Structures are given as structure tokens and as C-alpha cells.
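Bug report (template v2)

What were you trying to do?
Predict the complex of my protein with fe (ii) ion.

What happened?
Run completed; filing so the output is reviewed.

Input:
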Amino acid sequence: MSIQWTDELLIGVSEIDSQHKELFSRFARLFTACGEGKGKEEVLRLLLFLQEYVKEHFAAEERLQMRHAYPDYAVHKGEHTRFMSDVERLANEFKAEGATLSLVIMTNKTLASWLLQHIKRTDMAFATYLRTQGAV
Ligand SMILES: [Fe+2]
């Protein structure tokens, strides 16, 4: 599945928005590689990238939530933790079995659709909160 960036996904905090765009472009890279029959080479690169980058990105969001006393902080952070453990699980699967087709599909489908849904629902709810606080 390919995920397409649209400006409807902007939450209004430029640091977070540019990180989201970067994540989308990385997934697009995997999707393109899959189309060229090079998904297996690209999948490890994406997983390694996500392990580092997403940690920073989630931390940035969570800092912002703490700073603004976001009431749904714990739930939101819980979603982040689940995503990180999915990335971890897929990276371990890669170590154990190499880039199987199912790993490529799971990475593409599960992680990409998680990201899209998370931004649409969970990050957007936070964005709405920031607006009600007059913070953005
Ligand atoms: Fe988030």
C-alpha cells in the first residue's frame, strides 16, 4: 500500500509536520523499490531508519504534549510504544529470516497504514487540543 501525503494531514506544528513528511517520503521509497522488485533491499534500510528517526519524532511529540499538559498524553504515548515494538519485531524478524516477502508486505502495509491512521486520528486530536489552547 502506498500512502500519499496531503496537506490535510498537517497538524500545524512545523517541526512535527516536517517529520511526518519525511516519514511519508521514506515509505514512498520502499513502495517504489517494491515496484522495481527491490523491496527486500530497501526494507532493512527503512526499518533501521525508523528505529532511530521515529524515536526522536515521538519524543518531540511527547515533549510538546507534556509542555501543554495534554490530557490524553498516556494514551497517545501508548500508541507510540506499540508502533516502536512493531518496528522492533519486524527488525528482529529480518535478523532471523532475512527479507522475506511477508516481512516486506508487513512493513509496507502495517507500518504505513498505522502511520496514516495515527496522524489522522491521534495526532489530529492533539492538534485540535493545541488550537483550543491557543498554542498554534
Ligand atoms: Fe503521535
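What did the reviewer find?
The pocket of fe (ii) ion is lined by residues 61, 76, 80, 118, 122-123 (CB under 6 Å). The chain has a mean pLDDT of 93.
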